[in-house]
Write a structure and sequence with these properties.
The protein is α+β, with helices and mostly antiparallel strands. It is about 40% helix and about 10% strand.
Length: about 190
């Protein structure tokens, strides 16, 4: 109830549409980036397969390194952030993926470290608009990777050059080019 009044039908519909849309390409982008990493990094693929207890820290690490979402804001009053002046009405991007690789915060920021312990990343934003679906998203990513690795422990890309990336607010790989190795437990890529 904003300002003590009930939501209008239009506002309720807007919330429903946001909930529906916000959980689609975000999660498939995160799952896709994580699988792409595992397909192209055999050491991490085999480690996660052989040490399934790493799934929680690995999930957070994939969210940090491949954070799919960038949001925008409008400045509501003149201010300065980190020495950068901002004027009321300015529009700016919040590049969460970039903040997630801040070398002052993260050791080896560009590397995927499956057992990274301190990992306070920005993949779900921050503040009053922080992602409403973050725990659902975490569960989806975790279950997808666990199930994939149980069923398909060995996989590589048939054509790495065929992978394309979406542009814009939600970033992730879009062209599937996976080769699945049928022999369960095979180590030979
Ligand atoms: C890996 C998957 C996801 C990522 C990376 C992600 C990321 C984000 C980010 C960065 C924001 C904006 C935060 C801000 O403006 O400060 C956001 C907002 C939001 N997300 Fe997600 N999201 C994901 C999945 C989901 C899912 C599964 C749902 C629900 C089914 C969802 C629902 C929402 C909603 C409703 C908002 C708007 C919150 C508000 O404005 O108060 N998201 N998300």
């Amino acid at each position: 109830m904003p300002d003590g009044r009930p939501l209008t039908d239009e506002e309720i519909l807007g919330v429903c549409i946001l909930l529906l849309l916000a959980g689609i390409d975000t999660t498939w982008s995160a799952i896709g980036s994580s699988l792409l990493h595992l397909a192209t990094n055999p050491d991490d693929r085999r480690r996660l397969r052989d040490e399934p207890d790493l799934i929680n820290s690995a999930t957070e690490e994939f969210l940090r390194v491949f954070a799919p979402v960038t949001m925008a804001r409008e400045v509501i009053e003149d201010t300065e952030v980190g020495g950068c002046p901002m004027r009321k009405g300015d529009r700016l991007l919040l590049p969460f993926p970039s903040g997630n690789r801040d070398p002052e915060i993260f050791d080896r920021p560009d590397n995927v470290v499956l057992d990274r312990e301190a990992n306070r990343h920005f993949a779900f934003g921050v503040g009053i608009h922080r992602c409403l679906g973050s725990n659902l998203a975490r569960m989806e990513l975790r279950v997808a990777l666990q199930t994939w690795l149980e069923r398909i422990p060995e996989f590589t890309l048939t054509d790495p050059d065929a992978v394309t990336w979406s542009a814009g607010q939600v970033r992730g790989p879009r062209t599937p080019a996976l080769r699945v190795h049928r022999r369960v437990g095979s180590d030979d890529g």
